[in-house]
Specification:
This protein is mainly alpha-helical and 197 residues long. The chain is built from four helices and no strands. The protein is 48% helix and 0% strand. It is elongated and about 75 Å long.
Length: 197
């Protein structure tokens, strides 16, 4: 079989059929805008798979979304700290009421950050769960981040799509290298198409 005779139905790894696959199937080569749409559509979808592009574009979206409440908190906390430092300049010592007011002021500015973080918790775990499935791992490994080991599932999310990913849901998977007879050790016969990555 030559490369020209390669069946059109056999989809090389990393290519997408016409149309957008449903959330839960990997979307290889998804763009920045569509990744946000799929991230929000799969808010609590823990079954299925997600491609590397889906996961990392969504991760970037989460950082951008969190940037706004972080800036609000930093600005607000700075204003509260400066206002209390001026009050301390005129007071002989900080009273318990002043300390409580300062603490409440800091917490008030943190409310948007807390709310946005809570809203992003479920979808971030869902997309990581699906990405781990696509890499061939159990999605439950995402829970390692609850005990301070978030680096482990994050590194696993870098891994390419695994042939074992099909047990977690449909979608394209890497093609296995054909088994060559011993006389072809180290050589690839010309009748096979090049491996797609």
């Amino acid at each position: 079989m030559t490369y020209d005779q390669y069946p059109a139905s056999a989809q090389p790894y990393g290519t997408q059929s016409a149309g957008e696959p449903p959330v839960g199937e990997p979307y290889f080569g998804v763009g920045f805008g569509k990744s946000l749409k799929r991230f929000l559509a799969g808010y609590v979808k823990f079954d299925g798979r997600a491609s590397r592009a889906e996961y990392w574009w969504s991760y970037l979206w989460m950082q951008i979304i969190l940037l706004i409440p972080i800036l609000i908190y930093v600005i607000g906390a700075t204003v509260v700290a400066f206002s209390f430092s001026f009050q301390m300049a005129y007071a002989s010592q900080m009273s318990p009421d002043m300390a409580l007011q300062m603490l409440l002021g800091m917490l008030a500015w943190a409310i948007p950050l807390i709310l946005v973080s809570l809203a992003l918790t479920l979808p971030s775990y869902a997309i990581m769960w699906r990405r781990l499935h696509d890499a061939g791992f159990s999605g439950a490994l995402a829970l390692l981040s609850l005990v301070g080991l978030s680096i482990i599932p994050t590194i696993m999310c870098i891994m390419p799509t695994s042939p074992e990913a099909l047990k977690y849901g449909p979608g394209a998977v890497p093609q296995q290298h054909p088994q060559y007879p011993p006389q072809y050790q180290g050589q690839y016969p010309q009748q096979y198409p090049p491996q797609q990555y």
